[in-house]
Amino acid sequence: MELQAAEFEVNFTRKFIVKASNPLVKPHILTLSNLDLLSGRFPVTYFYFYPSKPDANMNTTESLKSSLAKTLNCYYPFAGRIVLNPNTNEPEIMCDNSGALVLEAQANIPLNTLNFYDLDQSLRGNKLVSIHPDFPLQIQVTYYTCGGVSITFTFDHALGDASSFGKFLLSWSEMARNKPISCVPDHQRNLRISARNPPRYHSSLDQSFVKCTMEEIMNIPTPKTLVKRLYFIDNSSINQLQSQACRSGKKRTKIEAVSAYVWKTMVKANIGTSTNKTHTAMCKMGWLVDGRSRLHKRDHNDQNPNSNMSNYIGNVLSLAFGEASVNDLKKGSISDVANMVHEAISKVTNEEHFLDLIDWIECHRPGLMLSKIVLGQGGGVPALVLSSGRMFPVAELDFGFGSPVLGTVCSTIERIGVAYMNQRPGAKGDGSWTVSCILWPELAAALESDSIFQPMTAGHLQLQS
C-alpha cells in the first residue's frame, strides 16, 4: 500500500561536487550547434530504482562518485557550466571542470511503498529531484529503509538529447564495473552540424518553428491542467496493437501501433472536441525524431561519405506532427490511424528535413528556437507528443550493485504547451514498456479505463512487500 505524500519524507544528508579526475582538455568554450538551440533548455530527469543491494558493506555513494569522476574525463562538457555569450546572448558550455553536483538523501519509507504511478505526488516537495540551475548535471542518490536505492540524473538539455544522455549513463555504468567504455564520445558540435552556404529551407518550417526567449519558454501558456503519471504496458498488449495496425498489409512499428491507439483514445476522451459548430474539430499528435542516422552521410565538408554520428553528443532532434479530424480518428481503425502516424513521421525522417531545419535556425539566429506547438502556439488544437526510447539503456545500467527494476524519464517542468508521453523498455527485458506521461486528466482516465495502460505499481516491478 503506497503511503500518502505527507508520510513520505526525505532527509538530505550530504552534498558533493564531483570533477573530472584527469581532464583530457584545457578549459575552453564549446559553442552549441544550431540544433542545440532548439532544445528549449528544459531539464531532463531520469529515474532509476534498485532493490536492496546484496553487498551491504558497499558504499554506493562513494563508488558512484569515483566512477563519475573518471567518466567526466571523456564527457568533459557535463562537468562544465552553461553561460551566455556576451555578444549573441546564446547559451554555450564553459568546459572548465566546475563539476557535477551529487546529493545524498535518506527516505523514511521502503522502496515498495513509493507511489510509482502518481508522479505528481512522488515529485512533490523536491524530494526525489531538486533542480540546481548552476549545475548542468546533477545526481541524487536516495536510500530507502529496505536497503533499496534510487538514483535520479538531471541534465540541462543544452548538454544533449536522450541519445547523448543514454551514452553517458551507459559509459558511467561501464566505468563503475571497471569495463572499457563502449562509446567514445564525439563533442565536435559545430563541425558536425553546420548550415549550408547559402542556407536554404522549405517554407513549411516557418509554420512549425519559432524564435523565442528563455522567458517565453519558462512561461508557456498551459490553459488545461496536466497530471504526471507512470504506466506499464505488457508485451502481449503491444504485440496485439501491432497486429491490428498491420491488418492493411503494411508493416507498422510498435510505436506507430501504440500511437494510433493513443490518438484514438484522445478522441474517446473528448480531446479536440470543438464547441464551435462551424469548425471541424481537430486533434494533433507529434513524435520526436533523432536525426543521427539521417545525417550520418555528411560531415561538415561533405567530403566523408562514411561519417558516422552514432557517438555524437549534443541535440539532433526534430518534431513530426500529424493532424486529423476527430471524425476521421473516431471512424478509422487502428490500421487506418497507424497509416496516418507513419505518413506524418515519414515527412521528417530524411536528410533533407534536417538540413533544412539546421538552415532555418541559421537564418533566425541569434537566439533560442522551439516548436510553435510546444510553445503553446498551436492555434488552439490540442496536441500530444510521443518520444520513443527503445534504445535507451535500462537493464544495462548496473553501477556495480545490480540492474535496476525500473528506469524511466520524468520532466520536472510545470508549464508545457502539449501533453507528453515517453516510452522506455521494461527493466526485465521481456518486451514490456514503461511509459512516463504528462496528460490531461480526462485522457489519463480514458487510458486507464482499458487494460493496456496499467498504472505502475510495486507489483509490476516485483518489489517484495
Spell out the key features of this protein.
465 residues, alpha+beta, seven-stranded mixed sheet, 18 strands, globular
Descriptive report:
- This protein has 465 residues and is of the alpha+beta class.
- It has helices at 60-74, 119-123, 162-176, 189-192, 205-208, 214-218, 235-245, 254-268, 292-295, 326-331, 334-346, 351-364, 441-448, and strands at 10-18, 28-31, 43-50, 81-84, 91-95, 100-107, 137-143, 149-156, 209-212, 227-233, 282-290, 317-325, 368-371, 383-388, 406-410, 419-425, 433-439, 454-455.
- The protein has 13 helices and 18 strands.
- The chain has a 7-stranded mixed sheet with strand order 12-11-14-16-17-10-18.
- Residues 299-306 have low confidence and may be disordered.
| Rounded average pLDDT | 91
Classify the beta-strand content into a percent band. 15-25%
C-alpha end-to-end distance: 9 Å
Number of helices: 13
Category from helices, strands and their pairing = alpha+beta
Question: What would you call the quaternary organization?
Answer: single chain
- Strand ordering within the main sheet: 12-11-14-16-17-10-18
Main sheet summary: 7 strands, mixed
Radius of gyration (CA) equals 22 Å
The coarse overall form would be globular
Poorly predicted regions: 299-306
Q: What is the helix content?
A: 25-40%
Number of strands: 18
What's this entry about, in short?
The chain has 465 residues and is of the alpha+beta class.
